[in-house]
């Protein structure tokens, strides 16, 4: 059921929520969290749909905060709050309130949201687009245990990654990181299958996709070897190649759904690695609400430390057309023909340089 | 293996527990359990990304099938019964490792072919020699399959690989047969390589008993004889024996359900806090409490068995047990059993545990009800509390998983009147609507070698020690009471509790 409220207040919205629950006959609420979605009118529909789907796994009260753009000076001085309260079948398994903020109240959204939070339950804020640069110090972000951003939706994803690293506060997280969980899981499973030492890694994927950088940084951070980020036409991530002392391990996904895992000396295997819907990403994100230290560590590794100057030991099947991009990003310094052993030292040198900047 | 893997980190909680390289061999793959539960569970695991790349599924049955026929059968079973949506790419991953071996259990050639298939899969799919054998076969075939596995070297673990056996209930039909079965199995597989499936233990709600009791402070202080009046554990089915006459007749409700499911639920409800949540510590506590179970002195007074008679069940006419196809009209098999047990330890002395199970009862439900004593003193007069029952915590295992707390509350109005109300926590309301099926969890645990949720040899034998005297008494004395289908069991069961001044909950 739906209740529309025009020019209203948080306490009237609370009343409407109770009224809605009574009307559909379920006065008890088992909702486990409050999800606050901060968005513009354009993205509200998709975000809410994803949140409602995710609510089948995590029943929640969803508050959609839509900041309306004022088009005249008079609009800006007037302040108005409109709300749409949905309970029952219209709201997934929880409750939804769509809040439309006009005029001055746009800058005081937290005053509307605070009284509508569920008692005791954790709060998650999600910005599908236009996330603040410092989510933890945003007035809405400050209310939350968990702050979900999405660098994929940013104008300059890679630059935004660096900014996120600078302002990282425990509880921050990024859907671009959530997107690569299946990849990380499969790569870890691949290393379960063979005992080997990884010497170098290449992560290949489309341009402007920060998931590739995050995956590369995670690998570099965990394995402590040089990691090269190379470009392909997508979709999304297309391949990860690990050069090891026992041969190559390649996870290759050309079509965005079915990947092939090749390990030298073992048969090739098909692996399902489908690109996931936003609803699935949000559902994963809501599964754990404690700080994600692995993400923090990968993020802080730093984009600039990827693509170290040394050439990666050449893979047998070198994909074409990516060399140039890598070369441009790399600092050309070390002699070409260097053995495998000093690779680590070189990576450390690069790291020190990066840190000194 | 994974300890040296630099990409694994305990702090990285997003990465799921993926089984290592392995395969699953199902004997009796054409059976109902395999089609309705096992195959869908394997697919659901693959769909959730929890199976290793190259995971292989081998079917073994008498039917004349090619690999493709088997794959088509799995495909249909998955489409019909899987919990998660069907996705082509997941199917493509699975189908590469699907094989079928045709043969009977005494056919040496077939087991040689099975060995060849496993070796071929190690090469083609990289399963590394790690295989679990799921025996979804009638109990009389257990020994021959186990022996065949031994004879053809299929149970040998070489070079760090593992071989595991998964067996389903019934684990024998009394203590003696259970011991024999255990001997047969353990001759071939080590005790840590045998996984006994009690699918109740794979259910989220059952695991939640431990969370409820040991992760909270508010329940454990009252979880003892000072506050608890009695405990009722119920597993009711609304169906009859269906087509299982051959299996069921002579076994009966007590052996089929009480021996495994209900005694396991009782052990989890009554046991002390384990030192840790690992398999050894859990088994130690469960064994302790099962060892402390004491039977009633007068078995005729404190046990009841029954048979469903013709009647109406949920709007449908149902025939009585003795009129079912394939059942001897003089059968004494129980389709309903209720027993009273006590636990002789400091926590529970004097608190009766009433266990009941039956077919063709009011509705399908499994629950554990811990019923508390009345308040020792009430400042309210008798009329005010006339409608007030005893407080209770009810753990609903299935369906509609959750926990209900019942307590008294004032009825709105001018007079003081107190009545029972329920406070409810429903799993589906607070967590996922789509919590994993018990079999998913259990198959994954087998592949991971995690035996937390599997009853051990000692537990099985202790359970038979509890049930055997009751079965022997029933054999010698009287006949099962008749109860109309669609009711909550024979009146004798109600009288049994009435004598103790209590009554059965209507679940």
Automatic annotation (TrEMBL), chain A:
Fetch the InterPro entries from UniProt. G6PDH_assembly_OpcA, OpcA_G6PD_C, OpcA_G6PD_N
Q: Where is the Glucose-6-phosphate dehydrogenase assembly protein OpcA C-terminal domain?
A: 170-299
Protein name in the entry = Glucose-6-phosphate dehydrogenase assembly protein OpcA
Record's Pfam families? Answer: OpcA_G6PD_assem, OpcA_G6PD_C
Origin species, per record, is Streptomyces guryensis
Q: Where is the Glucose-6-phosphate dehydrogenase assembly protein OpcA N-terminal domain?
A: 51-165
Which segments carry the region annotation Disordered? 308-357
> In what ranges is there compositional bias, type Low complexity?
326-357
UniProtKB/TrEMBL annotation, chain B:
For the ligand (NADP(+)), the binding residues are 62, 169
Query: What region holds the Glucose-6-phosphate dehydrogenase NAD-binding domain?
Result: 25-208
One MF annotation (Gene Ontology) recorded for this entry: NADP binding
Active site, renumbered: 261
Top EC category:
oxidoreductase
Report which residue ranges the record marks as coiled coil: none
Q: Where is the signal peptide?
A: none
Q: List GO BP terms, alphabetically.
A: glucose metabolic process; pentose-phosphate shunt, oxidative branch
Q: Give the pathway annotation.
A: Carbohydrate degradation; pentose phosphate pathway; D-ribulose 5-phosphate from D-glucose 6-phosphate (oxidative stage): step 1/3
Gene3D superfamilies per the UniProt record, alphabetical: Dihydrodipicolinate Reductase, domain 2, NAD(P)-binding Rossmann-like Domain
Which ranges carry the Glucose-6-phosphate dehydrogenase C-terminal domain?
210-505
Write down the EC number.
1.1.1.49
Q: Which reaction does it catalyse?
A: D-glucose 6-phosphate + NADP(+) = 6-phospho-D-glucono-1,5-lactone + NADPH + H(+)
Alphabetical list of InterPro entries matching this protein: G6P_DH, G6P_DH_AS, G6P_DH_C, G6P_DH_NAD-bd, NAD(P)-bd_dom_sf
Q: Where is it found, in Gene Ontology cellular component terms?
A: cytosol
Keyword terms of this UniProt record: Carbohydrate metabolism, Glucose metabolism, NADP, Oxidoreductase
This protein's record includes keyword Cytoplasm = no
Described by its record, this protein's role is as follows: Catalyzes the oxidation of glucose 6-phosphate to 6-phosphogluconolactone.
Q: Which NCBIfam families match?
A: zwf
- HAMAP family xrefs: G6PD
User: What protein is this chain from?
Assistant: Glucose-6-phosphate 1-dehydrogenase
The protein's organism comes out as Streptomyces guryensis
């Amino acid at each position: 059921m739906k209740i529309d409220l025009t020019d209203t207040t948080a306490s009237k919205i609370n009343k409407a929520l109770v009224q809605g629950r009574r009307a559909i006959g379920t006065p008890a609420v088992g909702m486990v969290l409050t999800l606050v979605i901060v968005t513009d009118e354009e993205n509200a529909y998709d975000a809410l749909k994803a949140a409602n789907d995710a609510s089948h796994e995590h029943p929640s009260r969803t508050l959609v905060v839509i900041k309306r753009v004022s088009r005249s000076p008079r609009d800006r001085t007037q302040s108005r709050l409109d709300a749409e309260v949905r309970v029952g079948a219209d709201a997934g398994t929880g409750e939804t309130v769509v809040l439309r903020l006009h005029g001055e109240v746009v800058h005081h959204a937290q005053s509307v949201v605070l009284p509508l939070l569920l008692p005791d339950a954790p709060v998650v804020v999600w910005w599908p687009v236009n996330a603040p640069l410092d989510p933890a110090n945003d007035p809405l972000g400050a209310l939350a245990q968990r702050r979900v951003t999405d660098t994929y939706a940013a104008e300059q994803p890679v630059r935004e990654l660096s900014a996120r690293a600078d302002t990282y506060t425990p509880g921050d997280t990024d859907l671009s990181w959530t997107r690569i969980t299946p990849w990380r899981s499969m790569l870890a499973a691949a290393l379960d299958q063979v005992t080997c030492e990884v010497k170098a890694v290449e992560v290949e994927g489309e341009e402007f996709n920060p998931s590739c950088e995050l995956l590369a940084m995670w690998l570099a951070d965990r394995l402590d070897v040089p990691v090269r980020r190379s470009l392909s036409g997508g979709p999304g991530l297309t391949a990860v190649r690990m050069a090891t002392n026992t041969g190559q391990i390649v996870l290759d996904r050309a079509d965005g759904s079915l990947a092939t895992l090749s390990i030298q000396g073992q048969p090739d295997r098909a692996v399902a690695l489908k690109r996931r819907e936003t609803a699935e990403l949000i559902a994963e994100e809501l599964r754990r609400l404690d700080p994600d230290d692995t993400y923090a560590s990968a993020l802080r590794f730093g984009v600039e430390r990827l693509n170290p100057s040394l050439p990666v030991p050449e893979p047998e099947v070198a994909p074409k057309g990516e060399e140039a991009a890598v070369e441009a990003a790399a600092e050309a310094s070390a002699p070409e023909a260097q053995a495998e052993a000093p690779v680590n030292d070189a990576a450390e040198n690069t790291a020190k340089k990066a840190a000194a900047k | 293996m994974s300890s040296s893997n630099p990409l694994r980190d305990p702090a990285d909680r997003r990465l799921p527990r993926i089984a290592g390289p392995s395969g699953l061999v199902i004997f009796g793959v054409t059976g109902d359990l395999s089609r309705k539960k096992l195959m869908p569970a394997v697919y659901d695991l693959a769909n959730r990304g929890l199976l290793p790349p190259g995971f292989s599924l081998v079917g073994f049955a008498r039917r004349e099938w090619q690999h493709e026929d088997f794959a088509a059968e799995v495909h249909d079973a998955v489409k019909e019964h899987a919990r998660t949506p069907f996705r082509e790419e997941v199917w493509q991953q699975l189908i590469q490792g699907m094989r079928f071996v045709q043969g009977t259990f005494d056919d040496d050639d077939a087991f040689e072919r099975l060995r060849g298939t496993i070796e071929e899969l190690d090469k083609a799919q990289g399963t590394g020699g790690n295989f679990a054998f799921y025996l979804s076969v009638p109990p009389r075939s257990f020994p021959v399959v186990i022996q065949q596995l031994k004879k053809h070297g299929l149970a040998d673990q070489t070079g760090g690989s593992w071989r595991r056996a998964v067996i389903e209930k019934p684990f024998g039909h009394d203590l003696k047969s259970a011991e024999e079965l255990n001997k047969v199995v353990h001759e071939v597989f080590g005790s840590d390589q045998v996984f006994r499936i009690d699918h109740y233990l794979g259910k989220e709600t059952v695991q939640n008993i431990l969370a409820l009791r040991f992760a909270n402070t508010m329940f454990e202080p009252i979880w003892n004889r000072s506050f608890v009046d009695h405990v009722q554990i119920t597993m009711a089915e609304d169906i009859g024996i269906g087509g299982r006459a051959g299996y069921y007749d002579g076994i009966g409700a007590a052996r089929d359900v009480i021996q495994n499911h209900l005694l396991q639920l009782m052990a989890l409800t009554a046991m002390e806090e384990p030192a840790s949540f690992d398999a050894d510590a859990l088994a130690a506590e469960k064994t302790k409490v099962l060892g402390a179970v004491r039977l009633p002195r007068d078995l005729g007074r404190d046990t009841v068995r029954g048979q469903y008679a013709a009647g109406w069940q949920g709007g449908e006419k149902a025939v009585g047990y003795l009129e079912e196809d394939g059942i001897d009209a003089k059968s004494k098999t129980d389709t309903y059993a209720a027993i009273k047990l006590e636990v002789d330890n400091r926590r529970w002395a004097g608190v009766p545990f009433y266990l009941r199970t039956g077919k063709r009862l009011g509705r399908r439900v499994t629950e554990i009800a811990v019923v508390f004593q009345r308040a020792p003193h009430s400042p309210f007069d008798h009329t005010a509390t006339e409608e007030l029952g005893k407080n209770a915590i009810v753990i609903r295992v299935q369906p509609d998983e959750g926990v209900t707390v019942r307590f008294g509350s004032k009825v709105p109005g001018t007079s003081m009147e107190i009545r029972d109300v329920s406070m409810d926590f429903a799993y589906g309301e607070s967590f996922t609507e789509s919590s994993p099926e018990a079999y998913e969890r259990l198959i994954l645990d087998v592949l991971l070698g995690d035996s937390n949720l599997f009853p051990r040899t000692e537990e099985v034998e202790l359970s038979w020690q509890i049930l055997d005297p009751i079965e022997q008494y029933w054999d010698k004395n009287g006949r099962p009471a008749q109860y109309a289908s669609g009711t909550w069991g024979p009146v004798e069961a109600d009288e049994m509790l009435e004598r103790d001044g209590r009554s059965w909950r209507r679940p």
